Amino acid sequence: MSPAWPDELTKADAEYVTPLLPLFWARLSALGDLLARDEQLLCAELLAEVRKIVLAMMLALNGIVRPAGTQHLNVYLGESQRQAMEKTLTLPASERDGWIGQAVALVVIYRWYAPQLVDAYDVPYPGDEEGEALRVLSDALPEWPRTISTS
Fold first, then answer.
1. pTM of structure
2. 151 pLDDT band (50/70/90 cuts)?
3. Distance CA 40, CA 37 (A)
């Protein structure tokens, strides 16, 4: 790729993208259990991990794998991508509502990027994993929205 970039870039491919989509749901589905046990620190770690998965998805749609150890992430994201991710960092007054709000925001972003990755890389959409994760979250969290719209 271009030597103008601060890191050596690797091109994303289907083998890289395929596990990202179901991994998002596998990790996110643990949120209800963590909240039930008031594991605030683990909630923060979990959502940071889920956020990294979404960032990896964004970068893959931009054609690259996140460079290891990069100190220049903003240059690999479009302005709207960066702003969308930064909005998932805010926490309302109630920690529980904040974790759920961050999770829902990440679902909205996921649902925007996942179908594009499915088309771009000809990979399967993990519909079963999504349905199961949403069921688990709905069962564990009465505040979890019954529908999440991307529009």
1. 0.90
2. low
3. 9
Continuous H helices in the chain:
14-17, 20-28, 31-36, 40-61, 79-87, 95-121, 127-140
Q: Please, what is the end-to-end C-alpha distance for the chain in angstroms?
A: 34
Specify the number of domains making up the chain.
1
Does residue 17 belong to any structural domain of this protein?
Answer: yes
Amino acid making up residue 43: C
Which range among 18-22, 68-72, 89-93, 147-151 has the greatest average pLDDT?
18-22
Which range marks the domain in which residue 29 is found? 10-140
* Angstrom distance (rounded) from CA 16 to CA 29: 22
CA distance 77 to 64: 10
At 95 the pLDDT is 78
The residue type found at 151 is: S
Using the 8-state DSSP alphabet, how is residue 67 labeled? P
- Degrees (nearest 5) of the Cα angle 31, 37, 38? 85
